[in-house]
Amino acid sequence: MRSPIPVDEFDASCGSIDSVVALPPETFTSDEFHKFEMEAVFGHEWFCIGRATDIPNKGDYYTLNVGNEPLLVTRLADGSVRVQANVCQHRAMKVAEGSGNARRFKCPYHAWVYGLDGKLQSAPDLNDSPCFDKSKVELPGIRSAVWEGFVFITFDPDIPPLGERLGVLGSYLKNWGMSDLRSASPLSWLDIPVNWKIFGDECYHCAHLHAKSWGPMYETTSERIDYDSAANEPVKGVIAYDLISEGEDFSPTRTGRTLQPVLPGLTTDERSRLVYVTVAPNLLIIAMPDKVKYFMWLPTGTTSSVFAATWMYPESTLDKPGFTEEWEMEVSDLGQVMEEDIYAWTTVQAGMYSRNAPRGRYAPSEVVLVRLNEWLVQKYRQADVAAEATELVSADVTA
């Protein structure tokens, strides 16, 4: 499928911050463009679908949907994580819902039973049939990789391994030890009626939208934002900036300081900044002196998405007396910030339908969005060129 918006129209959203403008409003509202974009971006890139640390034991699993793809993520007996289609190979019904622990998965429709590894174990009335070979039936596996405890998948069998994309970022965040961190609470998805690109992160809004919530807890003036973070690799969809603290162990809390023990191994410099990294298309990692937070989102439609956020700590912190009370207090203190973000996201989405919706100029502090645009537009161009080539081949065949 070719882009329903001529790709040349995206040129104005890439390049120098002195003249660049936002993507066309139609990219946030058009069903046809969304269909193109889902294949161009989510069909041909690694993207995050959760944490392996949320399913630590054999048989632990969780389910989710990515567009029209129901997925089942399972911890196998050998300790590995398998991602597979949550689609019974009989009549396409989901074989599992929610999350939990299971020895096997039984489709509720006709009781076809699958092992944790997706292989068919039983099919009533067909088990002894000489015309049916169970060994040839399994839930299709999805190409996956675990990076620093995050589970990534891709539907593209040909793109390079995930490690090649995130190697520099892994080195930059090494001292945070993310693979050993655990979530303070189960991941909970929130339905938000916006196009998934609305979640694009920047800190231009921090001193304005969050002036009365975040502002009193942590300073975010423009001179304290380093947009040239060494974690940046925009061409790979890794887009970072650092908030430079006034000193060690500053944090957006009611005290202005970290509430939990500082992560072991952090340098003085690492304890004096908050690192914000977008791993496009759908993950934001926030590395802080005492924890790592992450935000994740997935499109469910043109103007609908699910969004989740959680906070991760070492086991020693999670087991510390009084942790739960302190953590709940910190989450509550930042609750207004989240409410303000959701208000902004949904209001911007509504404005995209206006006949007066702009392709507004970016401010210098929005350079991170320009970098995200450039990554996205490259995906659009690649998909459009591939579709054009397919059309030409088809035309030659029918000529």
How would you describe what is shown here?
Helix 1 packs across helix 7. The longest helix has 32 residues. The chain is an alpha+beta fold and 399 residues long. Strands 11, 12, 13, 14, 15, 16, 17 and 18 form an eight-stranded antiparallel sheet that branches. The protein has seven helices and 18 strands.
Search tags:
Rieske Iron-sulfur Protein, 7 helices, alpha+beta, 399 residues, globular, 18 strands, eight-stranded antiparallel β-sheet, four-stranded antiparallel β-sheet, Naphthalene 1,2-dioxygenase Alpha Subunit, Chain A, domain 1
Number of strands: 18
Mean of residue pLDDT values: 96
Taking the sheet with the most strands, its summary is: 8 strands, antiparallel
Task: Write the CATH homologous superfamily of the largest domain.
Answer: Naphthalene 1,2-dioxygenase Alpha Subunit, Chain A, domain 1
Strand content: 15-25%
**Looking at the structure, what is the overall shape?**
globular
Order of helices and strands: HEEEEEEEEEEHEEHEEEEEEHHHH
Distance between the termini: 20 Å
The total number of structural domains is 2
Summarize the structure.
This protein is of the alpha+beta class. It has helices at residues 31-42, 162-172, 206-209, 315-318, 323-333, 335-351, 367-398, and strands at 47-51, 60-66, 69-75, 81-85, 99-101, 104-106, 113-115, 120-122, 144-147, 150-153, 182-183, 190-192, 225-226, 238-244, 273-279, 283-287, 292-301, 304-313. The chain has two domains: 7-44 and 195-382, Naphthalene 1,2-dioxygenase Alpha Subunit, Chain A, domain 1 (Alpha-Beta Complex), CATH 3.90.380; 47-147, Rieske [2Fe-2S] iron-sulphur domain (Rieske Iron-sulfur Protein).
